[in-house]
Structures are given as structure tokens and as C-alpha cells.
Amino acid sequence: MRHNAYQTQKIAFVLLFIATVLVVLPVIFIVFIIVQKGWHAITWEFLTAIPKNGMREGGIFPAIVGTVYLVVGTLIFALPLGVLSAIYLTEYSKDNLLTRLIKLAIINLAGVPSVVYGLFGLGIFVIFLKFGSSILAGSLTLAIMVLPIIITTTKEALDSVPQSFREVSLSLGASKWQTIQYSVLPHALPGILTGVILAISRAAGETAPILFTVAAFYLPHLPQSIFDQAMALPYHLYVISTQVPNVSVEIRYGTALVLLVMVLSANFVAIVIRSKFRKMKKW
Amino acid sequence: MVERIKIKTADLNVWFNVIPSLKNIDIEIHEREILGIIGPANSGKSTFLRCLNRFNDLYQSFKMQGKIFIDEMDIYANIDVWGLRKKVGMVFALPVVLPLSIFENIAYGPRRHGIKNKNRLADIVENTLKAAYLWDEVKDRLDSSAMKLSGGQQQRLCLARTLAVEPDIILYDEPCSGLDPISTAKIEEAMVRFKEKYTQVLVTNNTKQAARVSDRTAFFLMGELIELDRTEKIFTNPIDQRTDDYISGRFG
User: Across the strands, what pairs with B16?
Assistant: First the structure.
């Protein structure tokens, strides 16, 4: 009997281990292939020049700049809105049907396919509000897409601050807002920051929402204002991979590598902050 | 001797959702006395305590009838709740130190009430820590994290923090439930000395503690005030049979 149990346990462990390895393998594979095929393309010129010869030569500078603009624009709209509404939902709102519906809606918003956000942005910002295909319209669309991420992570960060901190602060005669300001937010900040960085990497990497709202096929110059179109890395990658014939493999994978490095490094910063926070946290 | 009445409740009833938690409580608490409140779990003693600084307001399901007066002011009328909580301090069952330095833990309250001057804050920190019998143990490390203190030290820090906003009344919600006997003795010593300045209400599961420090003792059972009298009387010659049963350990 004992022997059998030992054997079964061993088989179970092996299966679990294999499953785990199978999960990690594709990630390693993707990164490996992109690095291997793309790193030759990475030169100073590639990073700082505009595309030439129908995007078959030159660099991807406008796409990098466009992506940075879009991320910054997204945060300008989504960060205050998301953090403030999360504070309201966690600290102020009463637990009733309405707030429960709002919370449910936010969770569901996170599950909406990104192309739907793109269509929504096209309808509302580009056409109805007449922003045209522009950085403004694209940023707003991406902002709506990342709002649920920011709200959910901020809510989790606020919820993880012990209730007793609030009670102590209130018992000393502090106002509710003082309590939030001095006894809750400082301890939730790293968690909120993590959400922000996740939002950044999501906004930087999505193609569908910017497809109809901001992305330009090719621009010979950088955008001049928020009402201009812009190139962006994910869309540029799509274009040179499927729409333009005879783009060298190196340029395509080089572009993918730049995008990957930008997104992964954002995620890496998030992980570092989170682990530092865990070490700091002693309650 | 006629005592000045500091806190008075009139026909106080409390429900959470529809479940009654306190029934027709009429209590007068004298200025500068220690009123001990004893009773088994769910007897409503903590609920009563939390009525006095309007802490039950934090619960959506809280409903109250009757009146509570502090210094003859109806505290459930339209009053400044933050001012009330500054005046009526509270020490919780488990020591809750904020993840800040020892200094900043104590300065937290005064800062919220607008005191910015460093020297004044330093004075407050020193005086309150001395009053809570913690100064000698921490005076050389005021800037280190309060999380590093032992449980008993943390609770004395909480006591000092409560004193720092200059309350009139201090409410204790089972303040020594997690502490060793020596820490408990230090807190009790502080309480007895505070009698010259503060009105204190002590909710405790430890009947012996009520016997040691309180001037008068109230016995709560199932949301009702069964008996309230001088502590010696309650512990030697209670009127109600249930009080006698509880303090002699026959139930609860």
C-alpha cells in the first residue's frame, strides 16, 4: 500500500512539473526567436531614423515616439479617473445594488475584446466628437481600455490596507479624507503603481484600439499636435508584416523586439516594485 | 459626595440590521472615574463603548434610538463628529501601530489637527510617551519603525497616541487582551494615574482587571445593563443573581 502511494505521488509530481514547463516554454520560445532574428536590426539608425523606401529601410523612430505619446496620453486620462473612482468605490460608496452593479460593470469592462474598444473609439471620439483619427482619440480609446485595470488594481491595493489603520485614524479625530490621504493611500501606493505599469504595457502593446482611432500607415514626420495621426509600434509591426511586400525579416523582428523590450521592461519594473512592497509590508 | 456627570445615556437602544444589540441602557458616568464594563461575549459592552465616540456610525447596519450626552451635549445631534472623536479617545483590543516611526505614530493625531511645529510635536511625543510609561524604553529610537516594538510596548504606544490629541475621555476596548501580565500591569498603572485628568471607560473580559482598576463596575448581559455599582459592592455583594454567577465564574 505505502509503496503505491509513493508511486502515485511521484507520477503526480512529474505531471505537474511537465505542465509547468509547457507553460513556460512558449514564452521562452517567443522571446528567443524574436531576439535571434531581430537583434541584428537594432542599430542607432534603426531606433532614431524615419522609415525609408516604403518602410523597407530606415528606422522606426516615428513609431516609437507615437507609442510613447499614446502611453502618456492614455495615462493622463486614465490615471486620475481610475484612481479617483477606485477610491470612491472602496472608501466612500455604500454597499448597495447600484455600487455592486458598477463593480460588476468594471469587471466586465476588463473582458471586452480590444477591437470593440477600437470601434467604440471610432464611433465616439473620431466621428461623433469630430476629433478625427488623432492622438487624442487614440489616447482616449486606450484610456477606456485600461481603466478597468487601473481601477481593479487600485481597489485591491486599497482593500489590502488593514481596516484597523482607518479606524485608528478616525478614532484620533481625523476626517475621512485625512484618513484616506495619510493612513490609506501611502500604504496603497506601490499597489497602485503596479496597476499603472500594467496599464502602460497594455496600452503600448495593443493594436486593435488604435487601428481606427489614431494609427497612421506611414508618416514621413513626427506628429505636431494631439490632433495629428501618429504611427505606433504594434500597428507598424502589423503593416510591415502583412501590408508591405518584401520587408526584410530583420526589420520585422527588430520592430517586434523593440516593442517586446518596452513592454517587458515595464512589466519588470512592476514586479520589482511589488516584491519590494511585499518585503516592506509587515502587518 | 456628588460627582459631576460626564457621560449620560438615556434609554439607549441599538440594533445591527434588526438584531437588538443594546436594550434601554441608562448609565451615568462620572467625571474622572474609571467605569469598568464586564460581561460575556455578545453582551453589547463593546457596542456601548463604540456608541460613545460614534464609532458605530462606520457600520451601515447600525441603528440607534435614545440619547447620549457628553458634557450635557447631545452627541448624536448635528455635531462635529471629528471634534467628538478628538475629545473621546479610544484604545483598541489589539495594538494597531501604523507602519511609521514611533515619533510619527504619536504625531499622527496632532498633525491632523494642524500642529506642524517640530518642537511642539517633539514635546507632545515626549510627554505622552512618559505618561504611557514607554519613554525610557524608546527615547533613543524614536525614528525607528514602531512595528519593531513588542506587543506590550505597541499597546502603550497606542495609549500615548490617544493621549496626543488631548482627549477628555478615554475608552478602552479590552486593551490588555493580548498582553502579558507585566505589560498589563503597566497599562493598569497608567490608567489609575490618569484618573486625575481623564474620565475612563474600560471594557474588559477580565473581571479581575475590572476589580483591580475600576471605581464602579457595570455588568452587561445580552444587551442589557444588569447591574451598576461601586466595584467593591459588585464583586462582594451583588444584588442580581446573574452578576454573582458571572463574577464567580459559573458562566460566561
Answer: B19, B62
**Nearest C-alpha in B relative to A96:** B60
What pairs with residue B70 in β-bridges? B7, B73
Please give the Cα distance from A236 to A214 (Å, whole number): 12
Residue B164 contacts residue A174 (beta carbons within 8 Å): no
Which residues on chain A are in Cβ contact (under 8 Å) with B173? none
Listed residue (B158, B154, B180, B183) closest to B170, CA to CA: B158
Cell of B232: 467593591
Spatial CB neighbours of A117, under 8 Å, sequence gap ≥ 6: A141, A142, A144, A145, A208, A209
Domains identified in chain A and CATH numbers: 76-278 (1.10.3720.10)
Q: What is the pTM of this model?
A: 0.84
Nearest to A150 by CA among A204, A86, A71: A86
Q: How many residues does chain B have?
A: 252
Cell numbers for A29: 520560445
CB A132 within 8 A of CB A173: no
The candidate with the shortest Cα–Cα distance to A72, out of A132, A121, A135, A122, is A135
Spacing of C-alpha A217 from chain mean position: 23
* Closest of B91, B56, B57 to residue B165, by C-alpha: B91
- All residues at 6 or more sequence positions from B164 whose CB lies less than 8 Å from its CB, including other chains: A172, B106, B107, B108, B109, B110, B124, B125, B128
Cβ–Cβ of A173/B112 closer than 8 Å? yes
Report CB contact under 8 Å: B92, A165: no
- Cα distance between residue A206 and residue A214, in whole Å: 12
Choose, out of B82, B106, B165, B169, the residue to mutate when testing the contact with A (most A CBs < 10 Å): B82
Parallel/antiparallel/unpaired status of strands B216-221 and B224-230: antiparallel
Please report, in tens digits, the pLDDT of each residue of chain A (283 residues total). 566 888 999 999 999 999 999 999 998 999 999 999 998 888 888 898 888 887 788 889 999 999 999 999 999 999 999 999 999 999 998 888 999 999 899 988 888 999 999 999 999 999 999 999 999 999 999 999 999 999 999 999 999 999 999 999 999 999 999 999 999 999 998 889 888 888 998 999 899 999 989 888 888 888 888 888 889 999 999 998 888 888 888 899 999 999 999 988 888 888 888 787 777 665 5
Q: What per-residue string of b and e applies to A51-64 under the rule 16 or more CB within 10 Å gives b? A: beeebeebbbbbbb
Which residue, A262, A218, A272, is CA-closest to A243?
A218
* The C-alpha cell that represents A214 in the structure block: 489614431
Whether A171 and B162 lie within 8 Å, measured CB to CB: yes
* pLDDT of B92: 95
Name the grid cell of B18.
434588526
